[in-house]
Known about the structure:
Blueprint: H1 8-20, H2 23-35, H3 41-52, E1 59-62, H4 65-78, E2 85-88, H5 95-103, H6 113-118, E3 122-123, E4 129-130, H7 132-145, E5 153-155
Amino acid sequence: xxxxxxGHPWLIIFGESMHRGKPAMMHRALRAMVESGFxxxxxxxxxxxxxxxxxxxAILFTNGDMDTYPPCAVQEIEGLRPDVxxxxxxxxxTLWHARFIRDYLGVPLPVDDDWIERFTAYxxxxxxxxxxxxxxxxxxxxxxxRGCFDRPIAVAVTVEERYWAF
Length: 166
């Protein structure tokens, strides 16, 4: 009953498709975001810029909608840099999303499912709330620094330094 030319609902459809493990609908949602004009030429240009200089097989950690969807759409529509996996750091709050990252994208998680299910947010020494997303991201960064993670990690400029500068 919605307007298929409005790009906004496709954002929700994309996320829900991820949740339900429906990659074909995810791809359709990305295409609809472009066809509807929701993802503008400037946004798509930004997505290309984000992808172009990354090392082969990189994981690009993003922070929100407009630094996640444009590079995903450019990958989908133009086939640019399909070797790069895009992980929205902010959406890693749920077990289903972490499993999607692992099972669909093939990005190994730094912990197992049981650990994620038991995780409870906590306050660090500075009093900042540390969420599941923060903890997974921190562990990937630490594994990479120790040489225990076999893929290059790239961080979008929109991800605050406090999340990755340890």
